[in-house]
Amino acid sequence: MRVLAADDDEVMRMLIGALLEQAGHTVTIVNDGTEAWCVWERERHQIVVLDWMMPGIDGITLCRRIREADPDRTTFVLVVTAKDKSEDLTQVLDAGADDYVSKPLTPSNFLTRLRIAERHWDIDNARRRAERELVEARYLAGIGETAIALQHEINNPLAALMSTVGLIDQGLYKPEEMPEALGTISEQAKRIAGVLKRLSQITNPRSVEYAFGERMLDLSPEGDAAPPPSS
User: How many of the other CB atoms lie within 10 Å of CB of 12?
Assistant: First the structure.
């Protein structure tokens, strides 16, 4: 994973960087919160490790900024702090941090918190992927239901319209029958236009059973007024 770490202490930067590389991550190390914010805005790392007390932007303020810019919480934020009072730790979590690790930092403690971060990110990423796939599946299902509905609503008037036009082209209508034929064309064209108009004005889409287990979008004149089926 891509990890950004920010700490103003050189020894801490060396320790955290070594542990992150040991865990197999691609690491960016900076020495203050201002630089960390600029780097994160540009690269959107998957995990961010922040010291609380830093020059420029402190870790808590930076955490809040990240959360405002990342409402879906695609970045896991781990705060490193020497403060251990309950109200301090509550402040860390209230700022939007996912976890914290206390100083003095030991390799075992840090690697444990890092493994938690990795698993948390993997689970959240899987959830986000499943949600995207569900949205896509619903979208594709909606396209299918719309296609069936259009076929159902338009086939008959379109067939009547095309048949009438074909008979006119072949000269099979007598002159006195032409007004009726043109009336048929106009009527069927209006039916098709009405279906398309209802489609464009749907605000409360719902599907109804069609045939053979298929469902279609309800394009009946009263369809949009009906409440959606309860789930």
Answer: 19
